[in-house]
Amino acid sequence: MHFTVALVGNPNCGKTSLFNLLTGARQRTGNMAGVTVDVKQGAREHKGLTLTFVDLPGIYSLSQNRVEERVARDYLLNTPPDFVLNVLDASHLSRHLALTTQLLEQGLPTMLALNMMDEAARLRCVPDIKQLSKQLGVPVLPSDGRKSAAIEPLLDQLVASLLANHQHQASLITTCSALMINYEPHVEQAIQQLTQKNISRWQAVQSLEAAGDVGFPISEEVRQTLSDQLTLLAQRHDETATELITAGRYGYIHGLFHEIDEAHIDISRLDTWLDAITLNRWLGLPLFFFALWLIFEATFTLGAYPADWIDQTVGLIGEGVTHWLPDTLFRNVITDGLLAGVGGVLVFLPNVVLLFLFIAILEQSGYMARAAFLTDRVMSKVGLHGKAFVPLVMGFGCNVPAIMATRTIEEPRARLITILINPFMSCSARLPVYVLLAGIFFADNAGSALFGIHMLGIMVAFVIAALLSRWLPAQPNEIFIMELPPWRWPSFRSLMMHVWDKVQDFLHKVGGVILVGSMAVWVLQTFPMQGEMSFLEQLGRWMAPLFAPLGFQWQETVALLSGFLAKEVIAATLAMVYQVNAEDMGGLQLAMQAGLAPAAGLALMVFTLLYMPCLATLAVIRRETGSWRWAALSIFSGLVLAWLGGWMAFNLGGLFF
Prior knowledge:
Elements: E1 2-9, H1 15-23, E2 40-46, E3 49-55, H2 67-78, E4 83-89, H3 93-105, E5 110-115, H4 117-122, H5 129-136, E6 140-142, H6 151-166, H7 185-195, H8 201-209, H9 220-236, H10 241-259, H11 272-278, H12 284-324, H13 329-346, H14 349-365, H15 367-381, H16 389-394, H17 399-404, H18 412-421, H19 431-441, H20 446-471, H21 492-526, H22 535-547, H23 554-562, H24 568-578, H25 587-595, H26 598-610, H27 615-625, H28 628-653
Helix pairs in contact: 3-10, 7-8, 7-9, 12-13, 12-14, 12-20, 13-21, 13-24, 14-21, 18-20, 19-20, 19-25, 19-26, 20-26, 21-24, 22-23, 23-24, 26-28, 27-28
């Protein structure tokens, strides 16, 4: 038998972590709102049943008009699941139960999974699970998206509930009847008037709460009655219908806690002093930038040791190939193509892993959400919406999913600006190039160089956002209330899953586009074998005058051209065109030091940061904006900014290096 279970909950409740544990998936998680932007699915077998779990976006209500709310609401209405697993944060239960009441009013078969029970225990506000289940009339179980041991009881109860509903055993509490909340008398009168028009009670409540903007069809007769009732409520009360219904729900929740003798206090926290420091008006931003500097310093310093081991391994393989294979074109392919190109990128895997690990720690601990709060004022001044922070941070990993994450931004102008500036957020694909150049030309301050180049990308993105906000026609601002999640210890399991997922992505690119790019560069570099210059060198020297003002030679020119496929290919191409032989991977650094001035190395870092996005990013810009015009603008503006930025870096850098 097959059943579908939808996971529904507020942002930051641990819903996606639980989904990953239930399905073995590796969806992105983070301790801040806006991480899940669409519907994710995964399946597993349990006790002979096939369970398909659907991870819906984190939402606060089914009656609001934001993208996340509409996605979740439309899914529940148009493709109703067999069961709803409502995930709640036990340490903030009173707030999270507001969504629960909406699910129960709709009459959806529901089970509650209480996450963060350890935090609730620390705050001395552990709910009485048995009493809560009795009062709500649905199963309630503790859960933990970080520990697999908590999953079996949850699955057992879920299967029992599914089978009970399937067999229509009305005597069990899992056969869910709609929750009835007694609202303010005038609201109840309005509900009664609407239900007389052949719509259900929950449809009447949602119509009043959303002022008719609902996901189900309603007749003109119902719309007219709804308009009349909303007018009557406005005449009788200072509050809107939405506010009256919300007050009724929280009144029900308050009474619920009184029934279960639960003094559920969320505001007394042991970690308030952390917020006092990290959110301080004067200390907050400097502290955040210092944390970022530490991350880049550690990324370079700690990553150097395993990178050396990989370098030595590649060198030993190259020595073995040279020793055992005859001097033929095939050996040349392996040593000068495969090992020099792919091996030249693979050595930077530890740096990429460390950067992702540190960023994941910032996200899961809750610090990144504090950073969003600190930067919100600056972002609003340059025309960026508060919801833009999550896509911009995701851009440090990969610009493709980051641009897709802008779907949570309702206002078209703000979304377009966020899409267009996202490529300036330096993705991890550029990191191998930065680490290579910083290690060669700025070895004593490599961590600071990495920090500086990423900060430059942020500054350029904000300047471009300010210009675009003046150029594009203004539209009404979408209201955005930022949620500060609690401080949490990052889950070791979640961190390792996140890192392993990124390692797989990196290795997939190494075995895919980087391998293909390296082989293409090798062919162009090797042929024609009889001529004085290869095809690659001819192309590079033909374009070299355009890049000469930046201090580049033909080698850097062809490397930048290859980066259009993927930015990692730049490092692979440099390794191939500068590499003396595969046995001496350090020869690349010596050759580049001899051929480039430090100022030119700085210019190359700046150019790599700013020039046109990779092919995959351009494709997603075209798809998300619906026009090649914006993708073309991204190419043109990136090339112009990169050339100007590289020229300034070369000339200003020449004064100091």
